[in-house]
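dumping the sequnces here before i forget
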Amino acid sequence: MPTARETTVEREASLTGTSLHSGAKVRLTVKPAGSGFGYQFRRMDLADQPTIPAFLEKVKQVERATTLAEGSVKVSTVEHLLSALRGLEIDNALIELDANEPPIGDGSASPFLELLSQAGRKELEAPRSVFQIKEPVWVTAPDGGYMAALPHEGFKVSCTNSNHTPHHTQFLSIEVGADNYAKEIGRARTFVFYEEVEPLLAKGLIKGGSLENAIVIRGESVMSKEPMRYPDEFVRHKILDIIGDLALFPLPIRGHILAAKPSHGLNLQFAKALLKAYRAYQSSLMPVENVPVGERALDINDVMKILPHRYPFLMVDRVLRFEGDTKGMP
Ligand SMILES: [Zn+2]
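..and the predicted 3d for all of it:
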């Protein structure tokens, strides 16, 4: 059941593993955080232990994985951990790690599901806000891919992973919540195409990569260390990545997400379009048509046309000048 209040983890919990790109050992700890904190990564291996918030504005790279950066500080491949957090409806957490990416595990969100089940979930005081889709929002990609959000009471994803080969195209439409995320989505592993990873392996760019943490597709055949976990595991992993990338949007989303050929790039482009729609919706709640352009004073009658006449606006009886579009000086 979706919770009516914000949540965090109940206690701290840690895991260790190997990072995908550098092959280095990494220790990751998840810690409780207060309401409004969101998800923040702290690099314990760097001087001053800098923190990067998991915000859309901090995304610097979307090829093959989602990378957050602030100045020279980076955290890569954040999407599977963020997917597990958002999927289990944990809204706030501090994530400490001593490398530039979380462990890759088995290429799914499984290690993080285990970590978060050890950490538990607890409700905070603050009521949980969500972004309810009221008008359709969509983005398209040059390769025919698209993503759209339609009004819907819960959170539903309908996705197809249609790709450059005629093989292994799958479709799934599923209502996702904390009660079924782990079972239906979180265990689906990453898949890669042989022709795409072979040059990366040759260049040593994915030192931690192996059949232990990805399914490799070569033509019609599928190479995997263990049998497929679901007959439609590929599209389920695409949904896992969508949930992880949309966790960079500041609020949980209520709506029906449609996705064809999603990628990290398209997911993030879509999240930005949602943010624009969200900001437009927020500003529509304020009547702005009477606000003069440029610098001009407003007297009490002008103020009463613009501001709701209730606390805390009750005390504003005039506006002396405006600074830019957003700041009025009472
Ligand atoms: Zn993924």
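Residues 287-330 form one domain.
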